Amino acid sequence: MDPFDTFRPQAWTRDAACRDLGAGGDAFFSDHRGEQYADARKICARCPLAVQRQCLQFAIDNNEEGFWAGTTKPERAALAKGESPLTPTQRRNAQMLDLFEKGATVAQLAVQFGVTHAVASTGIRRARSVRAAVAA
Fold this sequence. Notes:
Blueprint: H1 26-29, H2 38-45, H3 49-61, H4 73-80, H5 88-101, H6 106-113, H7 117-135
Helix pairs in contact: 5-7, 6-7
C-alpha cells in the first residue's frame, strides 16, 4: 500500500514535492533516524512554503507517524508545544540566509547544507519572505 494514499485527497498535496513518489515514499515512513532522513528533508525543502505549513498542520492534527513537512514525529511534538515557530527546513533556510548575507555564495551554501543550488537559492528567497512577514 502506498502510504501517501492516506493524505492525497487533501487539496494542498497536489503541489507537494513528495506527491508522486509512490514506493519511494519509504524515506518518509520507515524507521530511519537522523542522517537517514536527509533524502526526505531534501524533498520537503522543495515544497512551497504554504504546502509545508499545511502538511505540518495535517501531521500534527492527525498525530501522523513518519516524516512530514521536513519534521520527524518528535520534532512535530515539540512544535505543537510551541517550542519553535519554524520547521527544520525553515530554520535551515534562515541559517543559509544569514550566511549568504555574510558573504557566502549560493554554491558554497548548497555544498555546506547538502542541497542543490536551486534548493539553496529557493531557501534563501523563502527565508527572506518569512523574515518580511514576521517584520510586518
